[in-house]
Amino acid sequence: MEVFILQSQDQVNKFYDDNFATMSFIIKNAGLPHYHLDDLFNESLEEVWKINNRGQIISNLKSFFLNHIFKKNALNLAEKERKRKNTDISENLSPVFNVGTSNNIESKIALEHIEHILSLMQPTCRKILKYYLEGYSNEEIGQFMNLQKNSVASYKSKCLDKFEELTLIYL
Question: Ramachandran region of residue 46, left (φ > 0), alpha (ψ -120 to 50) or beta?
Fold first, then answer.
């Protein structure tokens, strides 16, 4: 069994360098920008140190660190980012989608703007957003469009960002 004790900055740097490609892959699959890598590494490293300080022994450090701690932290951060973006978008667009308001003329005008914004987007984005707004999961959308679930998540995130960007320009 391997006890995880990094006694110098050189050991930490070597561990980081040795696992950089795998951590980058995990971040990419979680749909996060690459600039989160260092923060996630440090956060994950602290968790492992806490485990060791409690006297627990970690067998197969590399696998434990990457597959359990780092991956969990990346997925948690990605989920927080998605929720934040969805909240921001829904708050910006809530007046647009609230067709039950007393002023239906404003709602129709806003709906025309949304249709215009969607027409500016790539067909793949339009389809993904259509399925997403209909309530389909990433897995279901992937089946409809012959894409991997992770690809759908990545596309959806980029499409929502683009939709938000265009909304700020045109609305």
Answer: alpha
Q: Let me know whether 63 and 105 are in one domain.
A: no
| 8 A C-beta contact, residue 57 and residue 1 | yes
Q: Which residue's entry shows tokens 């998605």?
A: 82
Q: Are residues 67 and 126 in the same domain?
A: no
126, 134 Cβ separation under 8 angstroms: no
pLDDT digits (tens), the chain, 171 positions:
444 555 667 777 888 888 888 888 888 888 888 888 888 888 888 888 787 777 776 667 777 788 888 888 888 888 888 877 665 444 444 444 444 444 454 455 456 667 777 788 888 888 888 888 778 888 888 898 888 888 888 888 888 888 888 777 765
The total domain count for the chain is 2
Q: How many residues does the chain have?
A: 171
In the numeric block, the tokens 């708050």 are attached to 91
Closest C-alpha among 1, 57, 45 to residue 19 = 45
Other Cβ atoms closer than 10 A to 6: 16
Residue with tokens 């994950």: 44
Q: Which domain holds residue 161?
A: 98-170
